[in-house]
Task: inverse folding
């Protein structure tokens, strides 16, 4: 009996880890529990699916140009480690998830080692927002793009790179089973108390830059609203740093760990203060109105002013064509500005309801309810594997 096919996966941050775990489950659904083998790099969710990560992913959650420059030796060393792993394990296909800079370096190394190895990029760089020339660059390094954003598609026309729009797994998330009462108990909130969710990001530099100003805003909001409770759902990969930052705050915050409590909190939350990222879509799906903030290093922000072509940084704002959720970026993300943006959501039920409804409408424009993205991604990977291995047909 022949050995099962081997798939190399790389995922270096929390949202990519979630995508990788979904893909692993979907491939096993098609090939059986012992019908496929996985090697590579991933986080806690992929580990739960059986991946023994070649190294911890935390040091590759890099934010911004300056941080990327400083981390370049580490990024190259880790890319070398993935290439060495591939040389040992001889995968039948590679799937590189998100992480544009790291993935591109890994792809180049894999291509040099084995020109016949199918290389799949799962989640493309956001060329609809900035630097559309990256589409051609990606086309030179990989064989297939699995796109999670319909906004991507026009930018890859003429590049020669096949693109499969599989949809965004985040858009399939359901909060039907969430228990807001459980979250309220965990936070210590009474029946009439309001809850502000604090979501400072999943990358360490996002947290370092945003937590001080988030803490300033939170303290001012609590001072004027004695019933206001603060809750912070935290990703395992950054829990240590979040605890260290919270120790500097002047107001208490309930730290919530685990995916169940996170979902509970998203439904129970009165409003949220969130770092730009996947979490904003999740909050919109849960019906929680929010204010979005972001801070990058000065060099990255200066270049972004030149390179950005999208008017917003939040995906559902881009889809809606307007600022459904208030965005406060860089120098605009101050304590007083965050307070001013959050107060209507905390104090006015009509304002909350209106923004939550607008968020729901905007998310629908992003392609909600288009089927299971992980299953579509798995079928695309299987199509890359079939010329190399005898596998079940669809």
Result:
């Amino acid at each position: 009996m022949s050995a099962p096919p081997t798939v190399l996966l790389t995922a270096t941050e929390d949202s990519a880890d979630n995508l990788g775990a979904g893909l692993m489950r979907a491939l096993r659904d098609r090939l059986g529990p012992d019908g496929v083998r996985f090697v590579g790099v991933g986080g806690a969710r992929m580990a739960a699916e059986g991946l023994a990560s070649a190294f911890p992913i935390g040091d590759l959650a890099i934010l911004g140009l300056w941080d990327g420059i400083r981390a370049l030796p580490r990024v190259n060393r880790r890319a070398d480690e993935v290439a060495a792993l591939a040389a040992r394990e001889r995968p039948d296909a590679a799937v590189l998830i998100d992480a544009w800079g790291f993935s591109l370096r890994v792809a180049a190394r894999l291509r040099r080692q084995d020109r016949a190895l199918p290389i799949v990029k799962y989640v493309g760089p956001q060329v609809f927002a900035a630097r559309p020339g990256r589409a051609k660059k990606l086309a030179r390094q990989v064989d297939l793009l699995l796109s999670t954003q319909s906004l991507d598609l026009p930018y890859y026309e003429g590049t020669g790179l096949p693109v499969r729009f599989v949809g965004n797994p985040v858009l399939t998330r359901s909060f039907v089973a969430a228990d807001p009462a459980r979250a309220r108990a965990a936070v210590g909130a009474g029946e009439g108390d309001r809850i502000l969710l604090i979501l400072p990001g999943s990358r360490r530099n996002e947290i370092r830059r945003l937590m001080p100003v988030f803490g300033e805003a939170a303290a001012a909001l609590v001072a004027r609203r004695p019933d206001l409770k603060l809750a912070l759902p935290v990703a395992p990969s950054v829990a240590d740093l979040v605890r260290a930052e919270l120790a500097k705050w002047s107001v208490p915050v309930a730290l919530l760990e685990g995916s169940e409590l996170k979902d509970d909190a998203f439904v129970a939350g009165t409003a949220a203060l969130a770092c730009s990222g996947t979490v904003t879509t999740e909050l919109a799906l849960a019906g929680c109105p929010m204010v979005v903030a972001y801070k990058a290093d000065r060099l990255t922000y200066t270049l972004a002013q030149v390179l950005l072509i999208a008017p917003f940084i939040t995906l559902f704002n881009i889809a809606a064509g307007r600022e459904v959720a208030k965005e406060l970026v860089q120098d605009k993300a101050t304590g007083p500005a965050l307070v001013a943006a959050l107060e209507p959501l905390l104090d006015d039920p009509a304002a909350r309801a209106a923004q939550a409804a607008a968020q729901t409408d905007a998310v629908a424009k992003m392609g909600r309810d288009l089927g299971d993205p992980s299953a579509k991604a798995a079928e695309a990977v299987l199509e890359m594997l079939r010329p190399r291995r005898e596998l079940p047909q669809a």
DSSP finds 15 helices and twelve strands in the chain. The domain at 180-365 is CATH 3.40.50.2000 (Rossmann fold).
